[in-house]
Amino acid sequence: MIALLFFAALLWDEAGAWGFKDGVLHNSIWLERAAGVYHRESRSGKYQLTYAEAKVVCEYEGGHLATYQQLEAARKIGFHVCAAGWMAKGRVGYPIVKAGANCGFGRTGIVDYGIRLNRSERWDAYCYNPHECGGVFTDSKHVFKSPGYPNEYENEQICYWHIRVKYGQRIHLQFLEFDVEDDTACMADYLEIYDSYDDINGFVGRFCGDELPDDIISTGNLFVLFM
Description:
mainly beta
């Protein structure tokens, strides 16, 4: 069981936290898991899915095509992909967080191609598959807890918490109570913290046992917690 408090503090500015992969600006798997929305393309490459095929791709992974509102909610916490994809009800578009000359026509928001009459057009897909445990927090101060706190959490339960505040702010994470299964290698039950979308360089630490971790201050404007 864990109970944590975070609050945002204005410290200093930072550039955006995205990266390029195959020439496309993208988010990491951590943000996709937090948002519940993720981008998919055909195995044969970009812009190869009809509307029916896009639905199958999402349903195969246990989700469904994201609605416009779900994609916009994900965009508001930083989800940014420069590739048009199918959404629910035959809509096509893509989310832009950072304006750029080569993507989004220099503006932010959902670049909306509208509802397509020709469902045989080929685009990528935006799927929605939320996790049962976790949450997304953007408040300036918030207390959150493991499921069922103060009782023990369920076996084999996986949770993702995503904390994101305004640019120029940092996050102060304070542990109020901490009691996770203790093992020498910290391999069974544990809490991992990342302060970047970079799954490697953003790693802060892994915690287990019942010793209260020290307060942690982010280097950027986000934290991702995985338990």
